Amino acid sequence: MADSIKKEEFASELLGDETSDGTVHHVNNPVLDLPTIEKKYLARVRSYSKDRNTFYFTDGIAKVEIRVVSDEIIRVRLAPQGSFLDDFSYAVIDTDQHAVSFSVEEDETSFYVKTNKVICSIRKADFLVSFQDLFGKVFSADDKPMHWEENPDFGGYYVYCSKKAHEDEAFFGLGDKATNLNLRGKRFKNWNSDTYGYAFNQDPLYKTIPFYIGVTGGEAYGIFFDNTFRTFFDFASENKQRTSFWSEGGEMQYYYIHGPNMMDVVKRYHSITGTHFMPPLWGIGYHQCRWSYYPEQNVRDVTAEFRKREIPCDAIYLDIDYMDGYRCFTWNKQYFPDPKKMISDLAANGFKTVVMIDPGIKVDENYWVFKEGQQNRYFCRRGDDYFMEGFVWPGRCQFPDFTNPAVREWWGTLYKGLVDDGVAGFWNDMNEPAVFGRGTFPDDVRHNYDGYRGSHRKAHNIYGMQMVRSTYDGLKKLYKNKRPFTITRAAYSGTQRFSSVWTGDNIATWEHLRIGLLQLQRLSVSGLSFCGTDIGGFTGEPDGELFTRWMQFGVFSPFMRVHSAGDTRDREPWSFGPEWEAICKKFIEMRYKLLPYIYTVFWQQHRYGEPILRPISLVEQHIPKNLIREEEFCFGDKILVSPVMNPDQKNKVVYLPEGDWYYYFNLQKYAGSQEHTIDTPLDEMPIFIKGGSVIPEYPVMQYTFEHKIDALKLNVYYSKGKFDSYIYADHGDTFAYEQSVYAEKHFLLEGTENTLVILQQVEGLYNERFDDYKIYLVGIPFEVKTIKADGVEVTLSKDELGNDYVLIEKDFRNLIIA
Description:
This protein is of the alpha+beta class. The protein is built from 13 helices and 55 strands. Strands 3, 8, 9, 10, 11, 12, 13, 15, 19 and 20 form a 10-stranded antiparallel β-sheet that branches. A 9-stranded parallel β-sheet has the order 34-33-31-28-24-23-22-36-35. Helix 6 (405-413) crosses helix 8 (456-478) and helix 10 packs parallel to helix 11.
């Protein structure tokens, strides 16, 4: 009894005392019925409102935004308490692409937001959102209503979206994940991480690309979950009938992107996140790198060896050891006493110099970069206002807040000294951000986030992107009309606007060669086409066969660079002996022959949003078996390759898509839509050219622009039917193409049983320095009797090898072979 009296007295004390008029005077007023934290779901739709191309649906408390971005793209946002966060994205550049028409309709069961291509339905009873085409086929449908859960430690919400997974559905995308191309049955986390020597299926890695493509019934759609917090994706792993994506903070905000072709989805994803910049032509040549080439004499010796052996190379890299005590933007004058002269001498021999810059700035009061950053409060700070400090290569470091526009502007100016010294390209590393001992920054680090504020939970995944954005924008000013060349290890969606990428610290194993093959295809369909691996593996010791097979694959990697750790053996093309050197040289020369084609494919990515590497699943998605093919891919739309993935492999089965295909090395013709067993001698790799193609070819040069050409070689591969080919050219290193100073040539081929007609149209203001084409005809099934160019008869000529070609002026409009 005494205990109960004490409890009543305690409760009375908390709640207050009753006054003479019966009211209660509250001394303390605790909430005695605190709500439990649990997942909450959207309830019945009560009403909606409209604001131009945006519709707002509510269940009385929560609100969902359905925004029509274009005829094929619709954005969905969730506000659990009815108030949306600020509408800001580092990834998206265009959320209003002016749909031709849109409307909202309703019936007893649902509301329908309609465009000319897509219907977004919102079911009234339970707020389920789904997307279908105008014929009623459902592509993406909620399995349960969008839901959320309060985050008591940080504020905001965990946000969730679950979609039905069709029985036949395959999933692609998500960036650099080290796993099979088809993601079905797997779960992933996006949290940019320095993952040295990662393994197959290890996750997470260096990049966050929260974009995937679903293919069902031979047709495709995409989902881009634009959320920079730690995000998760489950592709029918926990539940075979459900695909889910969720985040530890921020908004449930995603874009539904309609196809129905995978190519359409990727191009429309690029329409909202941007395409790659046009690289300088030298940036897509062969690059040589090592941790590290130093001192100066070592750099000179390696580059001289390339020229002596006549192995083409455009760029030499300097890793962190070129710096003074790993202080960024400095030179170690013991190793490089006169860097400006060295770089000038290298340039005279055709080599561009690329150097590394990391985000960690050494804490050193005598270091000018640190002093400027301190004085201007440019470095990241902890929640209690201490500086964020961590150990990386220079020792104790502080780190710029690249989400602050003023910091980005400042960072861009820091490159001036290196640019003045002649450095041509920059490589941003360790920008996940990586910190020794703890992995990355603590969650309580604060970021400006372009005025929208956030902790590191929000800014982590875009830190590397904003670093390389600072680099690219700063270099664009410093180089004036010259194109910057940048590389980054960490990335978020949209990074393609600023940089190329590579897949990080891989291992010299056959398994990692295969992982690289998968990663580059995945990156390409995920928006990051300008991608490459460390050829030969960063760590570990390849033998000559593995290195050479990797080099062969590297020819068809958009970014082609050998890179290796300092504790491994030398990794130059000649390092494994004369037999392997000869094969490596042969394939590097192939890269240089194909540069005009490769450059054209980069233009098609930049201007039209087409991925550079195209998995067979993208080329022929309507064939179910193609959704699990992984070893063949197309480089652009004219060349198919199937790298050799195993030691001592004598042959392999290669699938060729529809059409005629010519084996690159002997021009033998193969029929498409079927598999073929192809021999794989050490000095060959399965490479095929599509029939009906016009493939431009340069003579072998030791570096780009080594000398001008008198005539451009065009290899024309006959096939019956009508076909399109394109060739693009410009100055190769300026931004004049933005003012239409380029030449985009469109070739229309029509082959019949006894004729081949080639039509040419040219767009743009650029005039190439050569006057003629040398046209080589491949696979003509009839005896050539007459050749007329614009009505004037021309004759066949022979080259030094005895091969026939047609020499005609480059501005021809009509060529008839009969």
